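STRUCTURE:
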């Protein structure tokens, strides 16, 4: 597959998002918290 879909890009590689935005930082914190809570689920952690 040569087509690149947005879902295939790591979150850190999205230059259009203001990573210093308080809302963005809060969102990242929530994602990290969810990731830690779900780290026992192989199907979930394999996406990261």
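SEQUENCE:
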């Amino acid at each position: 597959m040569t087509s690149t879909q947005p879902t295939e890009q790591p979150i850190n590689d999205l230059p259009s998002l203001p990573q210093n935005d308080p809302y963005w930082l809060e969102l990242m914190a929530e994602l990290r918290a969810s990731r830690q809570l779900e780290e026992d689920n192989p199907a979930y952690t394999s996406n990261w």
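REMARK: The chain has a mean pLDDT of 67.
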